[in-house]
Amino acid sequence: MGDTLRLAVGVMGNAAALLLFSAPILTFCRVIRKKSTEEFSCVPYTIALLNCLLYTWYGLPVISCRWEKFPVVTINGLGILFELSFILIYLWFTSAKGKKKVAITMIPVILVFCITAAISLLSFHDHHHRKIFVGSVALVTSVVMYGSPLVVVLPNLVGIPLGILQLVLYCKYRKRGIKEESHKWDLEIRNEEKSKQLQLVINDSNINDKS
Question: What predicted TM-score, i.e. pTM, was given to this entire model?
Fold first, then answer.
């Protein structure tokens, strides 16, 4: 009973993962049809590629015991094919600037996977510790993958408090500036009136001297 339940849950998990990996197909059909990426980010697909690479490595016999994680290997191996296809389509239709961004994001993906694979092979000598290490790295990558679409929203979230701070400072010092300008204007008017009165006194004294 327990093995049957575990198999059923594994099949449902693989089906859900397949839907997740195939979801961007409609987006890339539109990219092919319009021959443009419309400047959307490729970061979610490169992070998803890293996630699939790590979980495929996690399921292989070199990390896990024999082929106990075979369903993990199959679904994430399929995910690697999906993500590589999406990235290649993106590269084909994006601008030169977009190609540079993809290259910049792919470098850390390759480095993280290679470093994780090397550490798991060279630093750990049993399946248990290798599984814990690779699984932990893959878990962190999964969290980043699900949060990567927020890359468009995060700059705006940071910009909201900064914009509010600018408005507060503007209102505060704008009032002070108005008061200072008003005070300066009053002083100028007073000085001008004093100079006029002084000029009148001088003129009157000149007239009296002449008479």
Answer: 0.69
